[in-house]
């Protein structure tokens, strides 16, 4: 009888119920909410489903799915690492996959896919879009200053502020290098706000523009030759990489993907980068980033600060883009609709769609989508340059 | 192999430690960072202007060569491009004979051909558009 009691007690002690903390419980609830938002409300489901599931997996206690055994060995006992169970492959399966985030492999591969999916045509036909893409990085620097005021370290402030670039892979890339302990809240904040762009941006766009400005119909874009589209990624990469070498991993992959798309001789590679490879990396990136949201590390007052700063960054980035749009409206004597400036916050193509929808609200015959795609893809380059600058300033 | 000399960030190189960060320095970093992004993208914008200028010049040259080659035939008709000036993109070349087709329909057909063939209207010549009756 005693044997059975001991056996049952042992089973209970080893079960997840005995190990479950209140933090785990809250995070499991958060995972359920995210799954609901992704599946029922369709908020960025391609990213939110794997992220939410990663959160769920990491907060099921006792599974060891995110355990880092090599780390515990390194700090244990006499410092000897050559004991059984100390190999990297003895760590939890998601911890091993997480190496792809820590090493920047996943964000860079995502950029390869983004490049293969991006048409720089609207940007090439209207180069002034680049200035809108630059102005829409304003929120990064506003959030950086506020984060320093709030007492974050420069590396943490830089990682948090990049949420304003509205670019998930860039945020993960920079945070992995500067403040990897903040990866989960920053990645979650970045992707959550990207999903909420249709709610965040329109009030700001309306507040900063007049009805007359919102009704502006822009002239048709010029045709861009294939040669221009091929030359652009190669030369721009060389140009930027020589000025700001730290941005080369991200921009290099972005431009390689774009060259696959435009050169017309590697359709199979372009297709793989856009679809199969991109989807695989999104799964791995999403699950592993979600799995870093362990209850004990995630549920801190600091996380609320990061969420608030991320929203501030997003708002100021939108403000920057729209305000420069207004300046260009005046300079060009009403030829540029300031709404397209809001698309400069990256988040391709969600932000461009918001500009299109807002434009059509005030002028149903207005088609701003292709005009907004220019600042939108410029925002991708702009946020990568901003991340490169911050890395160069604060790398450890 | 030459390694990147910045093992630590530029901020540490200048101020000795990240602990030196205060609000004025944060403002300075933010300002320089924002100006860096703006200037980098402005350089790219200028570069795009430059390549579009180069490619449009090359296209104009090749177009004028083609024009010279076809001129013996085309000179028989009074044409806008005989002045040597480029036509606006929305304008087509040559005279068009419409047989049983009204002008709006012809305009739609020409736009469709231009779109499907990816050839601008100012590079296309339509001789005639004829309505074909079902027998």
Topology, pairings included?
The complex is a heterodimer of chains A (396) and B (135).
Chain A: H1 2-14, H2 16-19, H3 22-39, H4 45-58, H5 69-74, H6 93-97, H7 99-102, H8 105-117, H9 121-125, H10 129-135, H11 138-149, H12 154-161, H13 168-178, H14 183-195, H15 197-208, H16 211-214, H17 226-243, H18 248-263, H19 267-274, H20 276-291, H21 295-298, H22 301-331, H23 350-362, H24 369-394
Helix pairs in contact in A: 3-4, 4-20, 8-13, 8-18, 8-19, 8-20, 10-22, 10-24, 11-12, 11-22, 12-13, 12-24, 13-14, 13-24, 14-22, 15-22, 15-23, 17-18, 18-19, 19-20, 23-24
Chain B: H1 10-15, H2 23-74, E1 97-99, H3 103-117, E2 128-130
Parallel strand pairs in B: 1-2
What do you see in this structure?
The complex is a heterodimer of chains A (396) and B (135). Chain A has helices at residues 2-14, 16-19, 22-39, 45-58, 69-74, 93-97, 99-102, 105-117, 121-125, 129-135, 138-149, 154-161, 168-178, 183-195, 197-208, 211-214, 226-243, 248-263, 267-274, 276-291, 295-298, 301-331, 350-362, 369-394. Chain A has 396 residues and is mainly α. Chain A has a domain at 102-180 and 209-282 and 301-394. The longest helix of chain A is centred in the C-terminal third of the chain and has 31 residues, at 301-331. Chain B is mostly helical and 135 residues long. Chain B folds into two domains: 1-76, no CATH class; 80-135, no CATH class. Helix content of chain B is 54%, strand content 4%. Chain B contains three helices and two strands. A two-stranded parallel sheet of chain B has the order 1-2. Chain B is elongated and about 85 Å long. Chain B starts with 9 loop residues before the first helix and ends in a 5-residue tail after the last strand. Residues 78-86 of chain B have low confidence and may be disordered. Chain A binds chain B through residues 123-124, 127-128, 130-131, 133-135, 137-138, 140-142, 144-145, 148-149, 153-155, 157, 222-225, 227-228, 231-232, 235-236, 239-240, 243-245, 378, 381-382, 385-386, 389-396, and chain B through 4, 6, 8-11, 18, 21-23, 26-27, 29-31, 33-34, 36-38, 40-49, 51-52, 55, 59, 89, 120.
């Amino acid at each position: 009888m005693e044997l059975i009691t001991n056996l049952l007690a042992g089973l209970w002690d080893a079960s997840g119920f005995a190990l479950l903390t209140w933090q785990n419980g809250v995070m499991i609830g958060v995972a359920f909410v995210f799954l609901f938002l992704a599946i029922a409300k369709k908020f960025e489901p391609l990213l939110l489903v794997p992220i939410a599931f990663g959160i769920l997996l990491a907060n099921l206690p006792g599974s060891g799915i995110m355990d880092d055994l090599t780390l515990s060995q390194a700090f244990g006992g006499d410092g000897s690492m050559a004991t059984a169970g100390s190999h990297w492959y003895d760590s939890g399966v998601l911890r091993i996959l997480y190496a792809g985030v820590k090493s920047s492999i996943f964000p860079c591969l995502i950029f390869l896919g983004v490049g293969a999916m991006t048409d720089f045509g609207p940007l090439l036909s209207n180069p002034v879009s680049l200035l809108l893409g630059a102005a829409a990085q304003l929120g990064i620097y506003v959030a950086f200053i506020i984060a320093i005021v709030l007492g974050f370290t420069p590396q943490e402030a830089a990682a948090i502020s990049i949420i304003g670039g509205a670019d998930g892979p860039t945020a993960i890339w920079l945070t992995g290098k500067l403040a990897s302990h903040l990866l989960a809240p920053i990645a979650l904040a970045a992707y959550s706000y990207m999903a909420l762009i249709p709610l965040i941006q329109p009030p700001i766009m309306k507040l900063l523009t007049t009805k007359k400005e919102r009704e502006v119909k822009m002239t048709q874009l010029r045709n861009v030759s294939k040669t221009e589209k091929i030359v652009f990624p190669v030369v721009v990469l060389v140009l930027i990489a020589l000025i700001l070498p730290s941005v080369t991993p991200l921009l290099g992959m972005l431009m390689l993907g774009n060259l696959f798309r435009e050169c017309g001789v590697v359709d199979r590679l372009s297709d793989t980068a856009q679809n199969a490879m991109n989807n695989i990396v999104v799964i791995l990136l999403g699950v592993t980033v979600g799995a870093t949201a362990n209850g004990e590390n995630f549920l801190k007052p600091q996380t609320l600060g990061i969420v608030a700063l991320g929203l501030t960054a997003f708002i100021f980035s939108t403000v920057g883009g729209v305000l420069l749009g207004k300046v260009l409206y005046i300079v060009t004597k009403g030829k540029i609709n300031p709404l397209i400036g809001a698309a400069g916050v990256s988040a391709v193509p969600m932000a461009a769609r918001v500009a299109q929808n807002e434009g059509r609200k005030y002028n149903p015959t207005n088609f701003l989508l292709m005009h907004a795609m220019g600042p939108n893809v410029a925002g991708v380059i702009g946020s990568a340059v901003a991340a490169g600058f911050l890395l160069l300033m604060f790398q450890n | 192999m030459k390694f990147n000399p910045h093992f630590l960030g530029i901020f540490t190189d200048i101020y000795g430690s990240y602990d030196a960060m205060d609000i004025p320095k944060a403002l300075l970093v933010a300002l320089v960072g924002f100006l860096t992004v703006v200037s980098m993208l402005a350089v790219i914008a200028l570069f795009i202007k430059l390549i579009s200028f180069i490619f449009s010049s090359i296209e104009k040259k090749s177009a004028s060569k083609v024009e010279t080659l076809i001129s013996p035939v085309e000179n028989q008709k009074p044409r806008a491009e005989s002045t040597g000036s480029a036509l606006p993109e929305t304008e087509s070349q040559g005279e068009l004979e419409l047989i049983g087709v009204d002008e709006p329909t012809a305009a739609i057909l020409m736009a469709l051909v231009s779109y499907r063939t990816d050839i601008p209207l100012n590079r296309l010549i339509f001789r005639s558009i004829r309505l074909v009756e079902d027998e």
